[in-house]
Structures are given as C-alpha cells and as structure tokens.
Amino acid sequence: MIRTVVLVGLFSARVRDYQDQLDALDAQVTTLGVRVHARFVQRRGVSAGGVRLLSSPLSRRFLIGTGKLAQVAAACASADIDAIVFVNELTAYQRRWLSARFGRPVLTRTDVARSTSALTVPARPRRLSTDRTAKPNRHRR
Length: 141
What we know:
Blueprint: E1 4-12, H1 18-31, E2 35-44, H2 66-78, E3 83-86, H3 92-102, E4 106-108, H4 109-114
Parallel strand pairs: 1-2, 1-3, 3-4
C-alpha cells in the first residue's frame, strides 16, 4: 500500500491552469488516504528556445528534464516516499525508466482515478509458471 507520494507534472506554457490540475490530483490522492509530500512542475516553452517544442516531452526516456529529475529523486531519497504520481500520461517505456531511476513505482493520474479504496501499484501481467516437478493428480477408482 502506498502512503506517501510526490506529484510531478510537465506542462506547456500554453497551459494556464497547471496549478489547478495539480490541486485536483492532490485532492484525489488525499481522498484515498495518501499524503502528498511535495509537488514538482516542469514548464515547457516558457523560455524563448522552448516555444517550438511546447507539446513534446523534454526527454523521451524520462518525460521531464534531467534537472527536475534530480530534484524529484533527491526529494524521494530524503523522505519516505512510496511512489511518484505524474499528472501526465506515460508510455510503458517512460514508466519503466522512471521507476528504475527513482527506485519506486511511478503512477499516473489515470492510475489514481481507477483506484477505489487506496493507491496500489499497477498490477503486472503474471506469467503462468509450469511446475514440472509436480506429479499429476490421478484419481483411483
């Protein structure tokens, strides 16, 4: 079970209500009984050079920039953070790399919306293992 999280979001300069989006996610998470330790915002296109790339991620692997990634990792290391929740949708590739980098599960707003009672780590599909040492169950007549 997840008790403490950090919220992270990448927002274009065109998005004016990014604080409202973080507030809404914060409220959703808090309603589920999870404490929000910190919130991190990465803005895209605020500088003159970033305007042409407003809607694209800063990093194909991590979505956010390396500086913001380091800030989030430091916050997770300094506190007992159970998971990171992104406002943005993530690809499986990004989720895998972010989880590996943070050493914690990485969730999205969609994962929080699906949760009914408490945040849990998204289930991975399980592979059926075949136990070849088990003896077949034979019925006697």
